[in-house]
Design brief:
The radius of gyration is 22 Å and the shape is elongated. The chain has about 130 residues and is of the alpha+beta class. The protein is about 45% helix and about 30% strand. It has helices at about 1-10, 15-40, 50-65, 120-130, and strands at about 45, 70-75, 75-85, 90-95, 100-110.
Length: about 130
């Protein structure tokens, strides 16, 4: 309690305020990156109105149009990869069960394997559009 009273009575100059703001922003960004990295392999679920085979066929058709390369295609699993250039590659894993699609997007990079931020949202939007087709 005493610590908060001392801080509230203390005045900071512009450089100290800037440092505090940058430090808070960097801390929040680090927490976000750590959270995304820890939950990267967790499967996301999209529920569709189509059957398992229809979902699989539509995803295969769309993936070839987008430019994904098919790596594996088994009974209820499909794995695609997308070459993003400069030694970057996105691996997209899809599991099909009934009318649900379980998916995740992993990234493989040459030096730093940081998590994907926007690819999961883009794939989710693509899978939700499968019901419209």
């Amino acid at each position: 309690m005493t610590y908060f009273i001392v801080i509230s009575q203390q005045t900071f100059n512009e450089n100290e305020r800037l440092f505090i703001c940058v430090f808070i922003f960097a801390s929040l960004l680090t927490i976000l990156i750590a959270f995304k990295k820890v939950t990267e392999k967790r499967l996301k679920i999209v529920e569709t109105k189509n059957t398992e085979q229809e979902n699989k066929n539509q995803l295969k058709k769309i993936s070839h149009e987008i430019g994904w390369f098919e790596f594996r295609n088994d009974l209820n699993i499909s794995i695609f990869y997308e070459d993003a250039g400069d030694w970057n590659k996105y691996t997209k894993i899809f599991l099909f069960k009934d009318n649900k699609i379980y998916y995740t997007v992993l990234t493989e990079r040459f030096r730093l394997n940081y998590p994907t931020f926007t690819q999961n949202n883009a794939v989710k939007k693509l899978l939700k559009n499968l019901t419209v087709i």
